[in-house]
UniProtKB/TrEMBL annotation, chain A:
It comes from Carya illinoinensis (Pecan). Residues 38-133 form the HPt domain. Histidine-containing phosphotransfer domain (HPt) contains an active histidine that mediates the phosphotransfer. This is Histidine-containing phosphotransfer protein. The modification Phosphohistidine is found at H79. GO terms for biological process: cytokinin-activated signaling pathway; phosphorelay signal transduction system. It is found in: Cytoplasm, Cytosol; Nucleus. GO terms for cellular component: cytosol; nucleus.
From TrEMBL, chain B:
Residues 310-322 have a biased composition (Polar residues). Residues 295-322 are annotated as: Disordered. It comes from Carya illinoinensis. NCBIfam families: myb_SHAQKYF (TIGR01557). The modification 4-aspartylphosphate is found at D69. This is Response regulatory domain-containing protein. Residues 18-133 form the Response regulatory domain. PANTHER family: TWO-COMPONENT RESPONSE REGULATOR, TWO-COMPONENT RESPONSE REGULATOR ARR11. It comes from the Eukaryota.
Length: 152, 539
């Protein structure tokens, strides 16, 4: 693929994240924070997010296996997870978090389970898309589309 | 102040502001660090609240401001906030993804100077230096005002107290202004002796704080007073004011803990009495001022009352009570500008004339005399308050009178005759004593605050002279600023019985006599009193 085309492709990919409601403006904030001192800032943050949040997901999974459900605990975990998801602007994931917490408050275990499955799905989709995006950006090298500078 | 004004440390203030960020979420920690660095702040990050606390303790003067997440596994963010407020007196910004009003309120109540919602934006962080700056301004103002009392956290601690004080910025400013006015008036006479103690601030190390807590526990929370604590702590360089100030904070701290449980209630304006209430002195101060108003209103009835009261005055203690009075008068005497006070206070009670106001004083005295046998408890509380009166102004005196009266009334059955008064009193008793009530207030808080604050400022200035408990005072002051008046102000169902708490009795004599310095004889004759009073107010 020619370089310009690649950049265009990456640009559109990024745009689609917003169009599909996967990301919100927090992601743009992160992009703005990226500078010469931290040229890979966005990717670093996203990586950190996925590494750290997987731990919380595990906690929630385990809590959901308990009987009876400890909604308080679940709500706490989800609060934590939501806070994390806010950091990268994971809009859809965040929406699922909110839904999940509402079910917690209502004491609706069924709703929690269902929402959690949906949440994990969104979480995984975003992860895949972002990984793909960062990878392609790296390959395409620096451009005006706020993509990553070439790494190797 | 150990900590120079930021701009002196760095000309490019707020660049170089030293920020400690505490969040268990590494992602946010990374983002915040980057953001703060972009603001040219000096950033330290910390993933655990306990580590943060250790960092802060190790380098007492190493940070200007703390930003902390609310939910952390090892320690609740609110708890961290308490500690930071108590030990380091630093501004703390809370942050959370949760914007529920109750959460934010809790943060503010615990003393957060700001509450940011995640995702946090650069522009919000760019602005945080204002909290540091504001704090410094207040500190400097305090010094300039020659108000050295650490205890007057009202302004300086704006952030700490914000739980109470924040919303009342208006009053806060007013109080400062008032204080300044007073300063101007008294500067010439008063300033000299105060200046020495005011300047140094004590850093409360963990050890020191533990000593303090130990002393408090040893003495018993109900009876605790700065002087006693100071004696027990046995730290030579510590002053009574230092202890008083710390005691105040400590009380606030405890009461907040308590408050958490009934947050809602407190907010409604009706509050169950908690630690604050228990603190007799504190509540007392407030109430006394309040009572004054009420008394004034009730003045018409007063004359009769007095007579009755006087008639009964056989008690020896009367004298003492009077004495204390005199004492206060003497102190205040020339310096105090009663007019100022009167204005504030009296404005509220439309019918009052100066003369009438005096009458309440008379009543007070009566009350005093009568008190010994029956109303020990009352006195007790009073005693704690004592410092104030002695230090203070006509206002407080009056207030006291009111209290006395109120106390008296139960016994004397004089209550019936002054319905109004009893009300006012009731509040007082109530507050000072036990968390007995439920409240209703008819008070007009605003006017109140003004007068009360003024009063406080005044008192504080003079306090040094006296041995009494500063802390309660200050606390009261803080309370004033907060929304909490409500609690104090009007609780309808007062039980006098509660007032008679034997435990307090023991204390009475001591305080009493402490304050009694006077050579004033206590004439039982009402007329004399009135003269006296008049003299006071005429000034």
């Amino acid at each position: 693929m020619e370089r310009n085309q690649m950049h265009k492709h990456i640009f559109l990919m990024r745009q689609s994240f917003f169009d599909q409601g996967l990301l919100d403006e927090q992601f743009i904030q992160l992009e703005e924070l990226q500078d010469d001192a931290n040229p890979n800032f966005v990717e670093e943050v996203v990586t950190l997010y996925y590494r750290d949040s997987s731990r919380i997901i595990l906690n929630i999974e385990q809590s959901l296996e308990r009987n009876p459900l400890d909604f308080n605990k679940l709500d706490n975990y989800m609060h934590q997870f939501k806070g994390s998801s806010t950091s990268i602007g994971a809009k859809k994931v965040k929406a699922e978090c909110t839904q999940f917490r509402e079910y917690c408050r209502a004491g609706n275990g069924e709703g929690c389970m269902r929402t959690f499955q949906q949440l994990k799905k969104e979480y995984a989709i975003l992860k895949r898309k972002l990984e793909n995006y960062f990878q392609q950006s790296r390959q395409a090298g620096p451009s005006e589309t706020a993509c990553r500078p070439r790494m190797n | 102040m150990e900590n120079g004004f930021p701009s002196t440390r760095n000309d490019s203030f707020p660049a170089g502001l030293r920020v400690l960020v505490v969040d268990d979420d590494p992602t946010w920690l990374k983002i915040l660090e980057k953001m703060l660095k972009k603001c040219s702040y000096e950033v330290t990050t910390c993933g655990l609240a306990r580590d943060a606390l250790n960092l802060l303790r190790e380098r007492k003067d190493g940070y200007d401001i703390v930003i902390s997440d609310v939910n952390m596994p090892d320690m609740d963010g609110f708890k961290l906030l308490e500690h930071v407020g108590l030990e380091m007196d630093l501004p703390v910004i809370m942050m959370s993804v949760d914007g529920e009003t109750s959460r934010v309120m809790k943060g503010v109540q615990h003393g957060a100077c700001d509450y940011l919602l995640k995702p946090i934006r650069m522009k919000e962080l760019r602005n945080i230096w204002q909290h540091v700056f504001r704090k410094k301004i207040h500190e400097i103002r305090d010094i300039e005002g020659h108000e050295s009392f650490e205890g007057i956290q009202i302004s300086r601690n704006g952030s700490d107290l914000s739980d109470d004080g924040h919303m009342f910025c208006g009053e806060d400013m007013t109080s400062i202004k008032k204080r300044k006015d007073f300063d101007n008036k008294y500067d010439e006479k008063d300033l000299g002796d105060h200046s020495s103690s005011k300047k140094h601030r004590v850093v409360w190390s963990v050890d020191l704080h533990q000593k303090f807590v130990k002393a408090v526990n040893q003495i018993g929370f109900d009876k605790v007073g700065p002087k006693k604590i100071l004696d027990l702590m046995n730290v030579p360089w510590l002053t009574r004011e230092n202890v008083a100030s710390h005691l105040q904070k400590y009380r606030l701290y405890l009461s907040r803990l308590q408050k958490e449980s009934d947050l809602k209630a407190s907010f409604g304006g009706i509050k169950h009495p908690d630690m604050h209430l228990k603190d007799p002195a504190g509540s007392f101060g407030l109430q006394s001022s309040i009572n004054t108003n009420q008394n004034d209103v009730a003045n018409e009835h007063m004359p009769d009352t007095k007579k009755t009261l006087n008639a009964d005055n056989p008690d020896p203690q009367e004298t003492s009570s009077h004495m204390s009075f005199d004492h206060s008068f003497a102190t205040l005497g020339s310096e105090v500008n009663y007019e100022a006070f009167d204005c504030h206070i009296w404005n509220e009670a439309p019918k009052i004339e100066l003369k009438r106001e005096h009458k309440p004083l008379l009543q007070l005295e009566d009350g005093f005399s009568q008190l010994p046998p029956c109303a020990p408890e009352h006195h007790v509380k009073t005693d704690k308050l004592h410092p104030v009166p002695s230090v203070t102004s006509g206002l407080s005196l009056t207030a006291r009178d009111g209290n006395r009266v109120s106390h008296v009334s139960p016994k004397k059955c004089a209550i019936e005759s002054f319905p109004i008064q009893s009300k006012g009193h009731m509040v007082v008793n109530h507050q000072s004593y036990e968390p007995v009530s439920t409240a209703i207030s008819s008070m007009k808080p605003q006017g109140f605050n003004l007068s009360c604050l003024t009063d406080f400022d005044y008192c504080q200035r003079n306090l040094k002279a006296s041995d009494s408990t500063l802390a309660p005072f200050n606390e009261t002051a803080c309370l004033l600023q907060g929304d909490f008046h409500n609690k104090y102000f009007g609780l309808p169902n007062i039980e006098f019985t509660d007032c008679n708490d034997p435990s307090f009795i023991a204390e009475i004599p001591v305080h009493w006599y402490d304050t009694l310095t006077s050579d004033y004889e206590c004439p039982l004759d009402p007329t004399e009193y009135s003269i006296f009073d008049q003299g006071l107010f005429i000034a």
